[in-house]
Amino acid sequence: MERLDSWKLALERLRSAQSADFAEAGRLVAEIARMSTEPMLRQAAEQALPVLRQAVDNDDHSVTLAAQRRLAVVLDVVHDLAAPRFGRRNAAPKKLSSEDRARKMLGLPLAVQLTCEDINQAYRRAAKGMHPDQGGSTEAFIDLAAARDILIHPGAHKDA
Q: CATH 1.10.287.110 in the chain, residues?
């Protein structure tokens, strides 16, 4: 993490300079490509390296713009990696109940009280495209009907 912070500072310094020193930027990006353990950062640095080397002692404006953009991409990746993480980032998503799965299948909101008429309207809307006569599959249509039944009679079905 300490190395990431020093790279971030050096990249920001290079990016904000009046006249870009692409030789220095090339050395820094080569170090990042060689020493980084993050695959995304290593890939961004490896892709930026040829353009930065080409921009050294080059008066072509399009080459310097391309080098500045590549340097910005590497800086963005470093910023993403150095940003603080809050909450449970790698936690598995919570499992939906059978009622929530049914609501999702019918395109209904999860936290709203529904009437039988709301459920039936949503079922009819969804069934138009899922019906086997309209090009849908039989299994999908049966699942849709089961979802409607779960929502209309919530106590009759067990959580799967």
A: 98-156
Amino acid at 33: A
* Tokens representing residue 137 in the block: 């599959």
**First and final C-alpha spacing in the chain:** 44
Superfamily of domain 98-156: DnaJ domain (1.10.287.110)
Q: Name the percent of the chain lying above pLDDT 90.
A: 24
Give residue-wise pLDDT tens across range 129-144. 888 888 888 898 899 9
Segment (H or E) for 129: helix 116-130
- The dihedrals phi and psi of 33, each to the nearest 5 degrees, come to -65, -35
Measured CA to CA in angstroms, residue 77 lies from 43, 45, 70 at distances of: 10, 9, 11
State how far the alpha carbon of 82 is from the alpha carbons of 29, 44, 102, in Å.
Answer: 17, 15, 40
Q: Cβ distance 61 to 20 under 8 Å? A: no
Q: Which amino acid is at 69?
A: R
Q: Which residue has the tokens 């990249």?
A: 11
The amino acid occupying position 28 is: L
